[in-house]
Sequence to fold (940 residues):
Amino acid sequence: MEQSNHAGRLASIVGDANVLTTVEDKAPYLVEWRDLYQGSTPMVLRPGSTEEVSKILKYAYENGLTIVPQGGNTGLVGGQIPTENGGEIVLSLGRMNKVRNIDPVGFTITVESGVVLETLQNEAEKADRLFPLSLGAQGSCQIGGNISTNAGGTAVLAYGNTRDLVLGLEVVLPNGDIWNGLRTLRKDNTGYDLKQLFIGGEGTLGIITAASLKLFPKPKKLEASFVGLPDPHAALKLFSLAKQKAGPVLTGFEIMPRVGVEFCLSHLDGARDPLEAPHNWYVLMELSSGSDAFPVRDLLEEILGEAFEDGLVEDAVLSENLSQVNAFWHIRHGMSEVQKAEGGSIKHDVSVPVAAIADFLDKAISAVSEFVPGCRPVPFGHLGDGNIHFNVSQPVGADKEAYLKNWDAMNEIVHGIVHDFGGSISAEHGIGRLKRDLLKTVKSDTELDLMHRIKDAFDPKGLLNPGRVL
Amino acid sequence: MEQSNHAGRLASIVGDANVLTTVEDKAPYLVEWRDLYQGSTPMVLRPGSTEEVSKILKYAYENGLTIVPQGGNTGLVGGQIPTENGGEIVLSLGRMNKVRNIDPVGFTITVESGVVLETLQNEAEKADRLFPLSLGAQGSCQIGGNISTNAGGTAVLAYGNTRDLVLGLEVVLPNGDIWNGLRTLRKDNTGYDLKQLFIGGEGTLGIITAASLKLFPKPKKLEASFVGLPDPHAALKLFSLAKQKAGPVLTGFEIMPRVGVEFCLSHLDGARDPLEAPHNWYVLMELSSGSDAFPVRDLLEEILGEAFEDGLVEDAVLSENLSQVNAFWHIRHGMSEVQKAEGGSIKHDVSVPVAAIADFLDKAISAVSEFVPGCRPVPFGHLGDGNIHFNVSQPVGADKEAYLKNWDAMNEIVHGIVHDFGGSISAEHGIGRLKRDLLKTVKSDTELDLMHRIKDAFDPKGLLNPGRVL
Fold:
């Protein structure tokens, strides 16, 4: 059947206005912000309900059409962008943006997958609750995409990854069947935990249409400190000290190098250097408590006092109010985008066991510096989770295209070091299309075989986000 | 091939001493403590290493032998007991009891699956760390079984179910292949999260041989209170108040009825009534913090003070020392076993959304009391998780066998009410053989079909723990 006929049939499901076929209408769905992928598609479908998603997938299943689900289009590994060959239909979840239920007593919220993360945070806040997932793209990413990629972010230390926040899912399967797994139970041991496969499944096993999520008491007290340190070894020791003393009250521990802070000072609106003199490394440490009774400020001062005595810390500033806390986080959250202004950047999203993070940074920094003399490593991120965005900016004045030709070779060097430490080549961004070939090099045949068996069991025709992950 | 020949071949893998074939040697592996199941087996195999487990499963796969994995044999749904037909070989993990590694800085421990839970708790403690999983059977249950059944227990409120404590697994697959997924990473988004299927998989998809687990800061301050209340509605309000004020510092919230406390006073060594007068209902509330800085005692007093003012609480005693905390928990942990001494008991391990727990208890108590006049409901457990062990003891002086004939009919009544509240018929004990038929009545065809597809993909010959779960 011709594409135009498919479009007509699909329009009868979602309505004419929700089948986008012109170049202009489709454009925003076909590129992502790093410009790594540019896709092509016969149409973008924008269903408004679970039933419509079900009917679309049933039609696609019967007619052998491939479908690429897309949320807020903020993914970093190309999973949400159709291929260039023009055969993949984009299914955008953005219109499914209702909050279905919120239960403050049971600390749960049930939302459709197109709800923007920031909206979800705000809905929780209105009910005097916290939805803790927090990341740079929160103003546009959607919760369905967050779940499909098991998003990480800056609150993982205390609250876990997105996976840990999900109580139940509603999913449309590749054949159009709806699985209603929307439970709000804290405990449920009735058979295999199917939702776990869709979480982090990157849309290859089913399309998440709604989710029941955990809420938490809203932090009553929140304090942060911006700390200057000599090196990552001092940062790791500071982390151990803080974790030991604060336990779950330690809700953020992010590391940044001087060069990253300088990039922010040059290119990020409203960024100011929190400390007077420059330091080689920085840590943004946040403590917060859902209880009024906790002396958060005293504890933060105690941790820093001890760290000064131990020679771990060179200088530190404590937040005086919430807007200063936000100013610290502004720098941290801006650290990704400012790299664009400094030319080419070769990216790695890696993790190692927390105890190995300083040794990993030593080795990786020295290896890439040897490989491309003059390159500027900007490794930053979630030290408390062992997760570093090991990004490497081009040497000043170098040719961007020429520099980026080192991408695969530099990846190989860094991932080799990650491997030696028993780490992961994709800590929080997923596999998508970007790391699909890499996956084969880091997983055993046994593990890849199990993944293929699952994919075949769920999507025997291979129509849902094909070529992503596997 | 004759069983004796199989025994010989398998003995060449594990050694003669580790193939048990006499009636006396096999006996402890063939009954469980509730006496609900009595099994038969040609032999019990006791491998000492992952390689031996791998060779056994490979041999079983080639020869079509069915295998029932068994840990500490404390499961409550018959999953670990071979059937009566005598065809299933028991594979006991008890000899695989090594701690492979402990990393206090990274807060992780890697152990073999035969390590007894209490041993694991002690190993963590020696390193000044907490492994929080805690349940009545901890002196004999093994961590491999805990993981395979996604055990719950009394620390779920603050630390989650066993699922939430697992970072990585080593699993022997039904064909004998070893999957090494023993990672200690806090973040890893490289494809489907396979370990989630083995967690709570009840040994039907593979045999867990080792696990990497999360550790936590050891509680520096621990306080508990034994509270007398009029009814579960007051208990739910107390829970909301405590959760709001204490957040993650609220580490235990257990409900018990008067009759259960009376059973303990009659049948449990060393049990004393913590309160002077009797109350219809009790709550054991525990607060603890990994930080010295937290005024845990003050907060507990503040919560109880407010609860008194609101008329939620009739009386309360606060622990004066750790042995008093333990005395409170002694009653709670003893509540399951003491029911044996009071004749027949019909069991339900159910959960509902936390906010619905008081309404559920009202309805279920009145329904079973109408069904069997004079029966004694002893619903107790993890109110903070929405999880109640809804056990119903026989009327005083009734005939035990005759009473137990009501099992299925009473289950149907209680599970119907659970269903109306969107709850689960197996909150933490799993499905095993006991609830296999029930599963078909509470899951959609879509969900059951997905589970079967997974089982077929992992264990196409159906040799591993057949007839459990599905």
In short: The first helix of chain A runs from residue 3 to 14. Chain A touches chain B through 95 residues (CB under 8 Å). Chain A has four domains: 3-92, 99-217, 221-268+279-323, 343-432. Residues 265 and 273 of chain A are 7 Å apart (CA to CA).
